[in-house]
C-alpha cells in the first residue's frame, strides 16, 4: 500500500507552481511555472535514487533499476502541464503516483525484476502548442522531432525556443528510452465512475480525435449602415458552424462530442460587422466509422453555410488520432489489481486523449481511472478525493508489480 | 466653388497618419497617430488664419471671424479618428472639407456675417472608448465631462490619461463653444446614393442606437470527456444570441439592423468548452417604436436561450441614442444648395451615428452625404471619388454661406 498522506502532500505541494486565485493551476507547457514543477520533480526523483534523463522534446524519465537490466522498464507516469485554467489533478496525479510508487518500494526494500521508469511527457494538454500529447506522438513516430520542435504557440514562440528558454532541451534522442509496457493513472475527467459509485475505471479504450484549424473570411462593414441582406458577417457564419457541430455530434448520442474551443475576431469593434475569424474545432468518437461521419458532416455543413452566406471558410484537419484499444493483457492486469485490492471497478472508455493512447500503438499500454467531482476537468474547480487518489495509486502499484515481477 | 484638387490632396496627405498596408487607416482616437493628424490639422487651421481652441475632451475648434461677432458661428466639420481597420474618408472628408471651405473663402476674400467654426470631435468612432460620438454627447449634456474622462479602453487606459498622453486635454470647458447651426458633410457609408446614381444625400434623419455590453457565464469543461447534454457552452450560447439578433432585426426589413461586433472567450483552449465570453451588441432603427421592439425581443430571446442552456447571460444597455430628426430649415438649406449647384440629390436617413445627430438636440443641425463605393465603410477598402467629394464640399460651402450670410 502506498502512503496516501504523502501522495496527497506532493499533489498539494506542487499545486503552488502556477496556482490560480480560484484554486486551480495555470501551468502551460514549457512556461516558467512548468520549469518550477520540473525542477521540483527532477530533485524528488533524484532524492528517491532515480537516474533522470531528459529527451530532445523535454520529456523526463526517472529510472529505478531492476534485477534484469537487459529488459526495458515498465513505464508509469503522465504529465505535469495544465490547461490555462486547469486543475490540480489532470496529469499530475499520474506523475506523482509514479513517484509515490517508487518511494513505497524503496521504503519496503522491494526490488523488481524489470526496471521501472517514471515519465513526465511534455505538452500533453495541447493548449499552448498543437497537437496535444505532442511528445508521446513524436515518441511513437507520428511526427518527427524536428517537426514538433518547429511548432509555434500563439505568440510565435517555437517548441525549440520554449525548451531552450527553460533549459529542458535534453540530450536523449526522442524514442531512445524503451519500455516493456506503460500504465498511466489519471482522473476520469468525466461523470461515469462517480455516477455509478465505482472507485476504479479499468480503461480498455479511448476516443479518436479530430482537430481542425478554421478561418472565416467575410467582409467588414458598418454595423449601422449596412442592410442585413447585404452582410457577409463572419461571426454569424461561425455561429451557424458552432450550432451545426453541436447537432452533428448529438446525432450520435453518447458516442461523439464536438466543440469549438477558440474563436478570435480580427480587429473587433462594436460598430463593425466582423470580417474575419480564426477558430478551432475538436471532435471525437471511440468509433472510427463515426469519426469519418463527423468529418464528412462537418465539411458538408460548413460548405453549405459558407455558400449561403457568401463567405469563405477554410477548414484544415491538423490532427487525426485513431481510437485506442488498449492492450488486453495489461487491461486484465489493471482489472486483477483492482479486484485483489477489493475496489469497486468497471471497464471504461476514455473521453480524453492521453499519452498512453499514443504509446499503445508501439508498446503494450493500459490506464487506471479514478473518479473526479461532477466529472469536471479542464476547469479550476477540478476535484478528486484523497481516498480515490490513493486507491488509484495502489492499483497502479500492484499492476506494476505484476508486470515488473518481484 | 472649392478647389477639388486641393481638398483631394489634403485627404491623401493626412491618410499617411496611421496608413495600413491594405490602403486603409488605423487611427484610433487619442492614439499617437491621432496626435499626428491633430497636429497637422491645428497647423493647417492656424495657417488659414483660424484661432484654434481645444476643449477638456480634446475636441478642436478653429474659428474664422465674421462681421457680427456677437452671434455664435456656424459649425462645420466631423472627426479625424478612424476604426481599427478604417478608411480614408469616414469623418476625414467632413473635417477637411471644413478646412477647404475656409481656404476658399480666404482666397476669394469673402467675409461672412456670422463666424464659421471648423470642428474635429474626439472619439466619434467609439471603438476605443464607448460610446461613439462621445465628445459631442458630452457637449449636449448627455454625459458629464468627468464621466467621459473616466471611461476606459480595453487596456484600462482612461480618456483622461489618453488625452494627457498626447497633450490634447484642452482648457476650454466642454460646451463653451456655441454654434448658431451645425452642418456635417460625410460619406453615406451605405449603398443607396450609388445605387440610385445620386450625387448628394440631403440627410433629414438618423437611426437611433442601442449599445449593450454582454457577458455569458457557462462552465468550462473538457472537450473530449464532457457529454453533449451536460455542457453549459458559452460559445454555443453566444451563437444562438448572434442568430437571434440577426432574425430579430430582419423581421423589420430595411428598418432595423443588429450586430454583434465583439466577442472574446476568456482563457480559450482547443480542448476546453468555452466557459465565459464577453460580447457587445449594436442595434439600430430610425423608428423609436422599432427600437423598443428590438430591445424587448432581444431580451426575451436572451432569457430563453440562457434558461434552456442553463447559463447566465448579463445584458447591460450602455448607450441609447434616440432617432434623429434634423432641423427642417437647415435640411432645406442643404437641399437648396444642392439644387442651385445642379447636383442630383435625394432625402436620406443616416444609418450611422454622427456628431451632428448629437448636436441636433441643442442646435439646429443637418448633414450632407456623398456616395461611397459599394456602400462600404468601416473597412480599409472604403472609397469615394474626387468629384463626389468636391460636390459634397461645394454643397457644404453654399449651405454655410446661406446660413452665415455674406
Ligand atoms: N487528459 C487530457 O485532458 N488530455 C488533454 C488532451 C485532450 O484530450 O484534449
Ligand atoms: N459615422 C460613423 O461611422 N460613426 C461611428 C459611430 C456609429 O455610427 O457607430
As a whole number of angstroms, the C-alpha radius of gyration of chain A is 22 Å
Helix share bin of chain A: 25-40%
Q: In terms of per-residue confidence, which ranges of chain A show pLDDT below 50 for 5 or more consecutive residues?
A: none
Instruction: Work out the largest interface and the residue count of each chain.
Output: A-B, 71 and 71 residues
| Average pLDDT for all residues of chain A | 97
- In whole angstroms, how far apart are the ends of chain A? 15 Å
**SSE topology string of chain A:** HHEEEHEHHHEHEEEHEEEHEEHEHEH
* Helix-strand category of chain A: alpha/beta
List bound small molecules: N-(aminocarbonyl)-beta-alanine
Form type of chain A: globular
Percent strand of chain A equals: 15-25%
Q: Total number of β-strand segments of chain A?
A: 15
For the largest beta-sheet of chain A, the strand count, sense and barrel status come to:
9 strands, mixed
In DSSP terms (H or I, runs of 4 or more residues), the helix count of chain A works out at 12
User: What would you call the quaternary organization?
Assistant: homodimer
